[in-house]
Amino acid sequence: MTPLALIDNLDNLPNPFTQFDLIAAELAQHTPKLKDPEYRRDLQLALCFIYSYNGSQATFNSYRREVERLLLWSWNVAKCPTLQLRRDQIEEFIHFCITPPDDWIGVKNVARFKLHMGKRVANKEWRPFVAHVSKLEFRNGDQPETKQHSLSQAAIRATFSILSSYYGFLMQEDAAGQNPVALIRQKSKFVKKEVTRKQVRRISNLQWDYVIETAEHLAEEDPAVHERTLFIMNALLGMYLRISELVADERSAPVMGDFIKDADGHWWFKVLSKGNKERLVALSDDMLNALMRYRRFRDLPLLPTIAENTPVIPKTRGQGAMTSSRQVRNIVQFCFDQAYERMCEDGMKADAEDLRVATVHWLRHTGISEDVKTRPKEHVREDAGHASMATTDKYIDTEYRERHASGRKKTLRPH
């Protein structure tokens, strides 16, 4: 049986702490189990747990995805509320997530709910899992198929982490006597231990030269459109910004007043990063020059003031700050595509290949990777907003360069 979605988007989800009866009444029309008090209680606790993360859209979506999958599996496969699941059943659920049946897998992202006769109803085309193809495969015309679905190691780790938090919440509410996720001793059969560091995904210095030159040419040819493009590209690499730190969302809207000059005359950019933590990013002289060029184009004073509420990245049309992360992705992708074409025309197709698969986040990786070569890693960590030094250490390649240099001297005919 193909399950229907249970939990709507944050913007359309009433507060389950005060309006659960309304939510349950709407869902009961296509979920008969909600007539049973045990299943109603199960849903209510799950909704309250997820809703507690409404301060961040991305965090809410992650927790909703994992808990909703568990609810759907528990109700439709295990035939019991999640409150009654045992350790061995959680293991069965993890196996199920790794290889779900075809009718639980979609091949495109669709809305969970849609409007019908003025009411929000579950979308029958939605599926708990979605198969994807790589960016390069999609650009080559390949379409995803259900058999291509797979969970990454990071996704499996997230499932364990979120569900463990969920059962911790249930224990605090005296709704569960134990945490069945924490009782799984051999998580290693699901999550592989990484024996070596993964290669940081970044573009090369040559590729970046072509990308930023492309943005500069675009800005010269059509400044009304592409001066903003040029500033976005510089900000993503020069300040290691995530998309969420550049566009406006329910938590914050970056404004020019977030560029701050301290008592020594040094410039910083105040960022609200993951976990609702503020950090200051040191502005290089080049980044400050890029900011001044951008402000000059926008007919603003050369440098910001502390109380300036002008959006850093304005909408193309209308008033206010840009809110679409997809628009930023499209801008970056356009620069990547144009740079790729220029490199191919210059006879460097092999050197250009990474630009066909690169994403916006590669610019952050590239900026950090370059800076750890010359700056103290503690400074880079603070600018990047890494929670631990171990994350910053992943960008330091000195040991690997030395290791490979010594390895190149090995001979296949030892003396």
TrEMBL record:
Compositional bias of kind Basic residues: 406-415
Entries under SUPFAM superfamilies matching the protein: DNA breaking-rejoining enzymes
Domain Tyr recombinase: 201-409
GO CC annotation: cytoplasm
Segments for region (Disordered): 375-415
GO biological process, one term: DNA integration
UniProt keyword DNA-binding, yes or no: yes
PROSITE patterns xrefs: TYR_RECOMBINASE
Entry superkingdom: Bacteria
Keyword DNA-binding: yes
Key words of the record: DNA integration, DNA recombination, DNA-binding
Comp. bias regions, Basic and acidic residues: 375-385, 394-405
InterPro entries: DNA_brk_join_enz (IPR011010), Integrase-like_cat_sf (IPR013762), Integrase_catalytic (IPR002104), Integrase_recombinase_N (IPR010998), Tyrosine_recombinase_XerCD (IPR050090)
One Gene Ontology molecular-function label: DNA binding
Compartments in which it is found: Cytoplasm
Entries under PANTHER family matching the protein: PHAGE INTEGRASE-RELATED (PTHR30349), TYROSINE RECOMBINASE XERC (PTHR30349:SF77)
Protein's name in the database: Site-specific integrase
Taxonomic lineage: Bacteria, Pseudomonadati, Pseudomonadota, Gammaproteobacteria, Oceanospirillales
